[in-house]
Sequence to fold (286 residues):
Amino acid sequence: MPPCRYVFALGALAAVLGACGDSTDPDDDPLPDNAATAVGLTVRDNVEASFDAFFPPRLLQPLSIGPADAPCVTPSSPADTDGDGVPNDATYTFTAPPCRYTGVRGFTLDAVGQLRITDPAPETAGFGATIDLTNFRFTLTAEDSDADYSVTRNGTIVLAGSPAGLELTSELQVARTFTGLSDAFVEHVWTVGFDPENTLQINQPLPSGSMTVAGAVNWHRGTENFDLTVTTATPLHYNASCDATGQRFDAGELRVTGTFGETPGYVSIVWEDCGDDPRIEFVAEE
Fold:
């Protein structure tokens, strides 16, 4: 018997279609409080936000909103001895405004909190950086307040690489709100790789390429406690022509696998076109 597959809406925490046999009843969602959707949305947000760390100047204009050379925030120290776009040691404190953006996936995005970016080899141009996040929060508000949510990140991301490719290692503690439900507290410990289609240039935006994610997600929300594993079923394809959108992948699939309460399975997150939210699907395994 094939696994049961359940498809959920991205715009709200409600299932709009379930498919197992002939059933299309939303009540077929096997998980209380649409937990699989919540996990998928949180992983989606962190994958897309983490992508900015491959090109640190992009962190100052979150989710590619506005040009990377026109940041909304100034550094505590502008020194960049080797000219590679990574400051020797700078702290950025975000406030909204000026770090407020409209038209982000139908939301208004406010970015507040602090980033510290340091260059591990400030005398030698390269691709390395250490990024510390302190109460770095994205608040997204919409005309329908039921869709509002916020994501707060603390932790460290380490970037390394060469002209042939890049790698991020991150340990992030994430708090995400859900209207009408408890907040989720999530630890992401994962490695993210980027394989460019063209040779990388120091202090230049990324070309198109493929991204992979592998690691762990430890999820806590109310009575939910899930130890999950993230794998890349199909590499995510970054399309450089999509860089002005908040969602920049036009193909690829991640899977978040584990036991959700008493239900083993995985959350499939499938990107299909730049500018569009990915499709989130729960696959129950028997």
